[in-house]
Design goal:
By secondary structure, this protein is mainly β. The protein has 1 helix and 9 strands, in the order H-E-E-E-E-E-E-E-E-E. It is 4% helix and 57% strand. The strands form 2 sheets. The chain has a 5-stranded antiparallel beta sheet, with no helix packed on it. Strands 3-8-5-6 form a 4-stranded antiparallel beta sheet, with no helix packed on it. The two termini are 20 Å apart.
Length: 98
């Protein structure tokens, strides 16, 4: 078991770089901290679960845009493309399943 204080792990930089909270061969949990305008370009990947903690953004899934904000939870199937663009300072985490 591991308890993680996400607020203590959050951090922002000029270039977006996810902070990996935990990783095993079967999953990875990145913390996504983005300033307005920063983005993750749309890309296909494995099954993903995204939970937005604070801020606002646009999540692009299979070419369609969805507004996201605190409390939004999104499930994305394996192979579906996904990307995120921050509109406000954004904190979210994802669970990527292999």
């Amino acid at each position: 078991m591991e308890i993680i204080d996400v607020n203590k792990k959050a951090g922002f930089s000029a270039e977006f770089m996810p902070r990996i909270l935990r990783a095993k061969p079967e999953y990875k949990v990145p913390l996504i901290c983005m300033d307005p305008g920063q983005m993750i370009p749309a890309h296909p990947s494995g099954t993903g679960i995204f939970y937005f903690i604070s801020g606002k953004g646009i999540m692009t899934i299979e070419g369609a845009d969805y507004e996201v904000g605190p409390g939004t939870l999104i499930f994305i199937e394996k192979g579906e493309s996904r990307g995120i663009r921050a509109v406000e300072r954004l904190v979210a985490f994802a669970v990527h399943l292999s």
